[in-house]
Each structure stands twice: as structure tokens, then as C-alpha cells.
Design a protein that fits this description.
Length: about 600
């Protein structure tokens, strides 16, 4: 959580910091702040709420500084207010710091600083106060680096820091362990950021700072060290992304843009898997014997990524007859999972940064399992830890609600299932060409107009229910999460056959139930569920490709027809669009839902 940035160069630093932060706001938007070095004095400007509040606050202030750091926060320790907003400054005004991560032993470290009056409730402040204690006005660059290394060795937890020291205005210092940090290399200017989108308008030349690395940037130089202060080589990578890819273009929100990019995410992911011969280097022996694989495959993820995993488990079991276990990463990491050297563990994560998924991966590795990561960020921590990475190519996903990444994840998973089937001479109901065939259907079709007359009604409800069976159950689970997340309507998904075991008690004349029905072999059973719901007087919105079922519900949304097994690629779109339209109707910003942030880098 949280985004941090730093700039040092010739430009007016406050403008650049704001531009950098704008593209990281998806990482947190409880408060924002900057620290500038004005002729050897550290100036802090902070504001509660969105970055725009900070912009308004500094609008008429003219700073001459050309170096500074900035932060956009997702609160963990301490309320989301101005006092707790970053940057934090040491009591003596010598050091300012921004932080992404968590300092687990901050209470213990505070004991070292009994004479210091802490201003905020954050875990971060202890770091800046420690640095303030060790760094004096006489400290040269080398001494400062030593003190940063000293403090890093004292910290338990995860961090990326950008640090400014008052009497060294021509340098920004940094350190990293566990939270992302990159350096943007410009001409006569250099940058720090938590993620690539921030830097794209300025430079495509990036250095990925590794865990256990620290250093300094000036306008002309970048120096990277390990914590023993041994200098490392600067490995600059050229990023093949354009600024447009992280801009809204003709769309008013990223979520709308990203839903529309679902078909691109499918096509791009599959094309890469084929062109890069992705499975060429996978440990084939692990996937060769279905009888051995059974009960040895584990899928672990959180949120939307877990829903992609649920779908994959169902398809893998049905098509390849292989048993798969599935866990929330937050549960897996504490449950003493039944895994060993023979196990294959598949970790799915858009960001590759999710703390619980990382911890689960580390645990699986310790148990000797073969760890496969499916992630949209090839340079992420999850990628670097896994034995094998299946990258998804959805492009940067900015909206907090995951949409195109989900489509890319199920594409990669379907491709993996096809590969497993081929390896075991198993005939399954689809191949990659069939998936390519669905791309245009997904691209050319939208349910936005079909939802039009229903959205107002849906938005009057406190709760909305979803029902599905088979793959449709996993899809409606994702639909319900999306609706809850961005429209704040309580939404729950039920397996069609389970209604009468309890949840039917919720259904009355007021209820709206959205039923998804895309599998031919489950028509009759799902119609039973619809009958049970209608009998209780509720309104049913049926989403299906079977047009002849039109009159089975009060409202009907007709899906384009593709092979049943590939219907998830089509059917997810109207569910994502429903959530988006409800957020719009309620005047909520779907890109920045309250209390949430894009990547959950804390437990
Ligand atoms: O980056 P990850 O895929 O690991 O993130 C997992 C979840 O936090 C994420 O999918 C979350 O549920 C989304 N906001 C849902 O839209």
C-alpha cells in the first residue's frame, strides 16, 4: 500500500512530485504529502484525502526547490489525517522521510527514543526520528548512508524509503526491503517511485532496486549499495510502455477503460504464451502424470485472483480429472498446509505484491513445493520468488477493482490447463484457437445499454443477490465482489442448489436476484432455483446465452454465444459493467473505492 516518489533535477519539484503522485494514487488515497528542500530547509506540505486537496493547498505557493519526495497514503497505523500523512520529519528538522510498508517492531524501537516527542500515530515516524538522532548537521554523505543502513538493520518489517537530509539538498537517499521501489533515470534528473506508471511521462529507463539495497540519487548520478555499503552495478532496463497506456484517453475512469480492455488482455496474454513458448521451460515432469498430480495441486490467491483460481480448479478437475485444493492466501499461510516436494502450488496475483500471497509462496517454498506464479507484474516480488512465472499481459491495471487482470488470469489458467491436458494426452473441450475466437466476441459486445433500465432499481437496494451453478457460481462470486467493492451495495453470491439450505430466507418481494446461466447441462437445475426465488416474490434478472429462456425471469440479458466452457470470458463482462454502472449511478468514483487500495502489501 501507499505510493512514494522522489525527484531531483532542474524542474520545479512540487509540480513534478504532483505529476508523479497522480499516477500512484491507486496505491492509496487517504492523504498525500510532499517534502521539499528549500535552500537547506525541509518544508512539508500535507493534506488529508485525495491528492487534489494537496494540489489546492499548494496552488499559490511558489517553491524554488528542485529536489523533493512525496507520498500518497493508505492508512494502516494511525487514522487517515494530516498528522499521520507522510512525509514525516525528525524532531530536529534534519531528516524527512516517506515510507511504503510496515515497521513491525516500531513500539520496541520507540523505547530508544524516550526523549523525543512523537507527533503522529504511525509506525513510520520511529524511523525518521532514529535517523534524526544519528544524522547530524556535520554528517557527510557517507555517514548518512551508514546511518540509514544501521537503522535498516534495526527494523523488522517491510519498507521502501525515500529520505531527504536538510543540509544535503542535492541528494535523495533510499532503501528497500519487501516493498517495491524503482529509480527512473533521466537526463540531468532522476526519480524514485513505487511503480512504473508514475515515471512513464518522464522516462522509460528504469532500475529495479532489489531487497537489501539502498543508495542515493542526485541530478546526475545514481549510486546503489548493499547494507554493508558495497557498491552495486546500475542495471538499467528500458520499459516498453507508453504514457498513454496509463492515461484515461477517451474514458472517464480507469475501470471503464480496463473493462473494455478485457479482450486485449485475453489476446495479448495468449499471444505471449504461444510466442514466448512460456511452458517450454516449466518443469514438465511435475505436470506429466495426472494420477500423481491429483491432490498435489494447490491454488492460492486473494480476492479477484482467488476467484480466477476457483474457476481454474473447476475446469481442471472437470476436464483433466485432477484434484485441486484452493485456499485464500491469508488462510493458507497459517494452516500448516499439506504440501511437500511433490506439490505444485500456483499463486495468482495481479500485482505480485500481495503480502498474504507472498507469505504463502515463501511457506510453500520452504515445504519444497514447485511454485508457479501467475502475475501481471513480471518484476514483482512474487515473480522473483517463484520457480516458474506465467506472466499475464493485461497491461498496467490502475483501477482498484480488478477487471482486465481477471480476464488475463483466466486466459493464462485455461492455457495452462490445455498444456497439462496435452502433456497427458487428455482430450479437452477447447484449445487456444477457440480462445482466440472468443476475443472478438468479447470486444464487440457490451451489456451497458441492456442494464440501463435496471440500474436505478438495483441502486435503491441495500443488498443484491447473485446465483449461479458450476462455473457460473464462481463468476457470480466475482460479480458480487465487484459490486460490493465499488458501489458499496452489499452483494452475496449463492450456489443455486444451496438456496434452500438457508439463504432463501433472505428472499422476499423486495429482493433482486441476478442469476447467471451459461452451462447447458445445468439449465434445468438453475431454472429450479429461479422458480424458488420467483415464488418468494423476488425480481429475477437472468443473464444467459439461451434466448429461449427469456421469459423465465422478469428481466433478461442475452449473452453472445460461444462454447459453454469458454462462456466465462464473455459472462464476466456484464457483471463488471453492472458494478461500474452502479458506482456511476451513485456518484462514486469506481477507481478509488473507500477504505481500499490497489495492492495489499500488508497483512
Ligand atoms: O494483486 P492481487 O491480484 O494479489 O490482489 C488480490 C486482491 O487484493 C484483489 O484482487 C482485490 O480483491 C481487488 N481489489 C478486487 O477487485
Amino acid at each position: 500500500m501507499c505510493g512514494l516518489v522522489g525527484y531531483i533535477g532542474q524542474k520545479s519539484v512540487s509540480d513534478v512530485l504532483v505529476q508523479l503522485l497522480e499516477r500512484l494514487e491507486y496505491r492509496g488515497y487517504d492523504s498525500a504529502g510532499i517534502a521539499l528542500n528549500e535552500n537547506g530547509k525541509l518544508i512539508l506540505e500535507k493534506s488529508q484525502g485525495l491528492l487534489v486537496n494537496l494540489c489546492n493547498k499548494i496552488e499559490n505557493k511558489h517553491f524554488s526547490a528542485t529536489s523533493g519526495i512525496g507520498h500518497t497514503r493508505w492508512a494502516t497505523h494511525g487514522k487517515p489525517n494530516e498528522r499521520n500523512a507522510h512525509p514525516h520529519i525528525s524532531e530536529n528538522g534534519q531528516v524527512a522521510l516517506v515510507h511504503n510498508g510496515i515497521i513491525e517492531n516500531y513500539n520496541k524501537l520507540k523505547n530508544e527514543l524516550k526523549d523525543i516527542k512523537f507527533i503522529s500515530e504511525t509506525d513510520t515516524e520511529v524511523v525518521v526520528q532514529l535517523l534524526g538522532k544519528y544524522i547530524t548537521k556535520k554528517s557527510d554523505e557517507n555517514h548518512i548512508l551508514q546511518q540509514i543502513a544501521r537503522v535498516c538493520e534495526m527494523i523488522k518489517g517491510s519498507y521502501a524509503f525515500a529520505i531527504m537530509v536538510a543540509h544535503i539538498p542535492n541528494k535523495i537517499f533510499f532503501a528497500k526491503k519487501g516493498s517495491p521501489l524503482i529509480i527512473g533515470c533521466g537526463k540531468g534528473e532522476n526519480f524514485l517511485a513505487s511503480d512504473i506508471p508514475a515515471l512513464l511521462p518522464f522516462t522509460n529507463n528504469i532500475i529495479y532496486v532489489k531487497d537489501g539495497e539502498m543508495g542515493e540519487i542526485s541530478a546526475e548520478q545514481i549510486k546503489i549499495f548493499d547494507f554493508k555499503l558495497k557498491q552495486k552495478n546500475n542495471i538499467i532496463k528500458k520499459i516498453n510502455l507508453s504514457p498513454e497506456q496509463v492515461m484515461l484517453g477517451n474514458y472517464s475512469t480507469f475501470m471503464e477503460k480496463e473493462i473494455a480492455q478485457g479482450s486485449y488482455a485475453m489476446q495479448n496474454t495468449l499471444e505471449h504464451i504461444i510466442k514466448d513458448r512460456t511452458f517450454y521451460k516449466i518443469k514438465k515432469t511435475k505436470f506429466q502424470d495426472l494420477s500423481m498430480m491429483s491432490s498435489n495441486i494447490h491454488i492460492v490467491a486473494c480476492g479477484t485472483a482467488l476467484h480466477a483460481g476457483m474457476l481454474a480448479k473447476y475446469v481442471l478437475e472437470k476436464e483433466c480429472r485432477v484434484g485441486v485444493s484452493l485456499d485464500y492466501a491469508s488462510e493458507f499461510r497459517y494452516k500448516k498446509p499439506l504440501i511437500n516436494k511433490k506439490s505444485i502450488c500456483i499463486f495468482i496475483s495481479q500485482s505480485g505484491e500481495t503480502a498474504d500471497t507472498i507469505a504463502s509462496l515463501e511457506l510453500a517454498k520452504k515445504c519444497g513445493a514447485y511454485c508457479v506464479a501467475i502475475t501481471n507484474v513480471i518484476t514483482s516480488r512474487i515473480s522473483s520468488l517463484a520457480d516458474f512465472v506465467i506472466p499475464t499481459y493485461a497491461g498496467p491495471e490502475i483501477a482498484v477493482a480488478s477487471t482486465k487482470a481477471y480476464v488475463a488470469q483466466i486466459t493464462a489458467l485455461y492455457a495452462l490447463i490445455e498444456f497439462v491436458a496435452k502433456l497427458n494426452n487428455k482430450k479437452i473441450k477447447y484449445n487456444s484457437n477457440d480462445i482466440f475466437g472468443v476475443v472478438k466476441t468479447v470486444e464487440n459486445w457490451s451489456a451497458k445499454l441492456l442494464w440501463h433500465d435496471l440500474i436505478k432499481d438495483i441502486c435503491t437496494k441495500e443488498s443484491i443477490y447473485f446465483v449461479g451453478r458450476g462455473v457460473d457460481f464462481y463468476l457470480v462470486k466475482e460479480g458480487a465482489l465487484k459490486l460490493t467493492e465499488i458501489s458499496y451495495i452489499h452483494a452475496e453470491a449463492f450456489a443455486g442448489g444451496e438456496l434452500k439450505h438457508g439463504s432463501l430466507a433472505l428472499i422476499n418481494e423486495e429482493a433482486i436476484v441476478i442469476v447467471l446461466l451459461t452451462q447447458k447441462d445445468l439449465i434445468d437445475k438453475t431454472l429450479n432455483a429461479i422458480a424458488e426465488i420467483k415464488t418468494r416474490g423476488a425480481t429475477v434478472i437472468l443473464i444467459s446465452q439461451f434466448e429461449y429462456l427469456k421469459n423465465c425471469a422478469q428481466h433478461f440479458i442475452l449473452l453472445p454465444k460461444v462454447k459453454d466452457i469458454l462462456m466465462p470470458f464473455v459472462a464476466i463482462k456484464p457483471l463488471q459493467e453492472l458494478a461500474f454502472l452502479c458506482a456511476k449511478e451513485k456518484n462514486l468514483n469506481p477507481d478509488k473505492p473507500r477504505n481500499l487500495a490497489k495492492s495489499v502489501t500488508v497483512e
